[in-house]
Amino acid sequence: MELDYYEILEITQSADKDTIKKAYRKMALKYHPDRNQGDKEAEDKFKLVNEAYEVLSNDEKRAIYDRYGKDGLKGGGFGNTSGFGGFEDLGDIFSSFFGDGFGRSSRRKKTSDEKFASDLIVNLRLSFKEAIFGCKKNIDFVYKNSCKTCQGTGSKDGKLQTCPKCKGSGQVGISQGFITFAQTCPECKGSGESIREKCSDCKGKGYEEIKDQVEISIPEGVDSGMNLRVNSKGNISKNGSRGDLYVKIIVDEDRTFIRDENDIYIEYPVFFTQAILGQSVKVPTIRGEAVLNLPKGAKDGQRFVLEKEGVKDVHSSYIGNQIVQISIKFPNSLNDEQKELLEKLSESFGIKDGMHQEQKGFFEKIADWFKS
Ligand SMILES: [Zn+2]
Ligand SMILES: [Zn+2]
């Protein structure tokens, strides 16, 4: 039997946000691939835990899930939980909790004698349109290059000595009254090693910072939170190998269109006569315009789907839909002619003595009230 998202996180349906967060933290750590090398079951469980958290931590998705279950989430464009690069995204949720270097591949993890991670992340802001249709962008960034003079140590002779302040333990005792607290050594910042004399080339940092620029093609359909990897444009380690550059996408909102994954939503005004008559109306879309054929008597707030008028999926040829929610508008004022026409119309619907047939029905229904 399939477990539901609450069962996966071992919480109750009434759990608050904090509880969900804590449960996720616990379960994600337990099943993290780094801790369960080659364990397929743990890997599957880790994916499920992330999937459960993605839904339950989002009020809107949680409400849909509570009412309609997983199937409900498939409908409104919520179906694709894997995002860009699949598993890579799960790493992202994870690292936002635990910091970089744990959630990702071991490449980003810095080795103990390296002063920086080899992979680099830069944010890139895109307009709503740029994200939907793709574009080319020049990205300015600064990468670190391990100092050759000092072998990345920051020390003039290339050697590190045992930190004299903490004697290599990385911690020092601070006394407050009768109590002594252990604290990270301020001299070596906990590494236990220190520099006798700073390297003059890198001023003791162990690396130099270099400005760089790269032109990248943003594919059609990217969305906020996705990462694009640019091969070998990251930091250069001591051994000369260069890490990757990750470009994290941030997309601006639009004033007219609302995007939910590959679907586009728009609230569109429809004049009451158009709705009553079921006319065809022109609707703006992200690519121009489309025709919406209203049914006779379309209702305020009713939603219509314009197929394939949404965003092209970043991984496939699938194109999302545009969902048009109509809001029916009435005239604020009437001229004499319009007034006359509407009065005639009103009469033709059988409105007499201030009453319509449907209203009469109500009086008949409650007739018993007045008989005692
Ligand atoms: Zn120290
Ligand atoms: Zn140096």
TrEMBL record:
Coiled coil: none annotated. Transmembrane segments: none annotated. This is Chaperone protein DnaJ. Its main location: cytoplasm. NCBIfam families: DnaJ_bact (TIGR02349), PRK10767.1 (NF008035). Belongs to the DnaJ family. The J domain is necessary and sufficient to stimulate DnaK ATPase activity. Zinc center 1 plays an important role in the autonomous, DnaK-independent chaperone activity of DnaJ. Zinc center 2 is essential for interaction with DnaK and for DnaJ activity. It comes from the Bacteria. CXXCXGXG motif repeats lie at residues 147-154, 163-170, 185-192, 199-206. It is found in: Cytoplasm. The gene is dnaJ. Residues 134-211 form the CR-type domain. Zn(2+) 2 binds at C163, C166, C185, C188. Keywords: Chaperone, Cytoplasm, DNA replication, Metal-binding, Repeat, Stress response, Zinc, Zinc-finger.
